[in-house]
Amino acid sequence: MKFKGTAVLFFLFLGLGAFVYFTEIRGREERQQAEEAKKKALQIEQKDISEISLIYPDRTITGLKKGEKQWEIILPAGIEADSEEWELLAGNVARIEREQTVAENATDLNAFGLDKPGVKVAVKLTDGRSFEVHFGNENPRKTFSYAKLSNGNDVFLTPTSWPRIFTKTPAELRNKVVLAFESDDIDGVKIVEGGKEFEVQKSGEDWQLKKPIDAKADNTEVTSFISSIRFARASSFPDPPVDAKTAGLEPPAISITLHDEKAKADRMLLVGKSPETDKFYAKDTSRPTIFIIDKEIAEKARRPVFDWREKSITRITRDSIEEVEIVRGADKFSFKKVEADWKLPDGKKLQWDKVSGMLNTLEFDKAKEIIDAPRALATYDLDKPKLEVSFKKGGSEILRLAFGADVKTPEGVYLKTSETPAVKVVSKDVFDKFNVKAEDLLEASTGGSGN
Q1: Could you tell me which CATH class the domain 46-173 is placed in?
Q2: Cα–Cα distance between 385 and 58 in angstroms, integer?
Q3: What digits encode the pLDDT tens for the residues 17-43?
Q4: How far is the C-alpha of 410 from the C-alpha of 430, rounded, in Å?
Q5: What's the whole-model pTM score?
Q6: pLDDT in the model for residue 173
């Protein structure tokens, strides 16, 4: 009997919950949706809009939907559409708000600025129906605008934001994408400027320079360049239109080719003359439109090869180092990693932050210049280095640094690593980090005594 009573209470609770849901929660949502629907000037859905016309006293702009979320500008002709902008327009048309009616079947539309509307928004739907909203003057308090539908003279108020949203120029609604592709699909970049060629190719997750030298590329620099093109937008369009020759695109000042591995195709951007300061004519070879872009892409494409290459001092990471030996002429000392500490052979503990800063240099400092085909080491005072640093793991040397003469341009010190035959120029700070004595590294709190 006790179980039966509990079951009855349980089902009563369920029934009460369902009642509350349907009468309160769901009912409130439905009432809210009904209120929002009543405020819509047009009872239409965005997905059903097939054509939009923005009609002004001096011009008309018309967009036609071509497939899912793809649009074409049919008036004025010969302009590519920015489909995202037209989709946004379509969404806004379906959300135009209608506030209170201020005049029913008004006979004097001039009083509301609706005899000659500043903008008319006309739409056609996929089922053949069409609608039109006219926007007139603002009300005296400048809080609302007067509006009406084309099939009647009832004047209503609408927030002033709506006529502003639909006041557009052709340039605002046209395609401003510089070059269409997905960054992750690009596995090659080629830049040609005059007689100079530059090329990088992707190898696994890394980028490799192929021209004018064969060397490891700086992944961040390459991906940043690709992204700058991917997200670049035309700043404007020449008016009146110019031809390719006038724009300096036949031949181009710079040609940039991105190989799209996924599409098995090349995406090519041509950069021409400067129509004004810090601007360039440009063209995607797959489209006829000539547009104007900011200087960023051209400046990045013209950087020296050194800017593109990997400039790390070494490829060895600090985690692989167990022992360090510093040699300065006849003076030599070493220290080892003992669990979480660094210690001299006699057990004296070293300042962790100083050793850490020294090793961080290997990972984060960059070469200021790289000489791939150096002359004799004596040229750089590297035949008799003023400082040598050996890094070991398991008792075996994994890297050796040799510091040579000072350099004035670029300011720094010559450095030779055991990894490559190249000679690098590094900052004086790199040299100073390793140019230390054992006592410079000792923990002050130990007072020189062992642990």
Answers
A1: mainly beta
A2: 78
A3: 666 555 565 556 655 555 666 789 999
A4: 14
A5: 0.80
A6: 97
Sequence-ordered list of residues with C-beta below 8 angstroms from that of 267, at least 6 positions apart, any chain:
179, 180, 181, 186, 257, 258, 259, 260, 284, 286
pLDDT digits 0-9 by tens, 303-352: 999 999 999 999 898 889 999 999 998 899 999 999 999 999 999 999 99
156 and 101 in contact (C-beta within 8 Å)?
A: yes
Structure token pair of residue 407: 């350099």
Burial class (CB in 10 A: 0-12, 13-18, 19+), 41: buried
Please write down the HEC assignment for all residues of 405-422. Answer: EEECCCCEEEEEECCCCC
The arrangement of strands across the sheet holding 387-393 comes to: 341-343, 331-338, 323-328, 387-393, 396-407, 412-417, 423-426, 369-371
Residue 339's Cβ-count burial label (10 Å; 0-12, 13-18, 19+) is exposed
Residue entry with tokens 């494409």: 301
Which one, of 122, 138, 149, lies nearest residue 53 by Cα? 122
Residue 359: what residue type? Answer: L
170-226 pLDDT, tens digit per residue, is: 999 999 999 999 999 999 999 999 989 999 999 999 999 999 999 999 999 999 999
- In this structure, which amino acid lies at residue 211? K
Q: Which two tokens stand for residue 47?
A: 């997905």
Which whole-number Å values give the CA distances from 125 to 93, 128, 319, in the listed order? 12, 5, 65
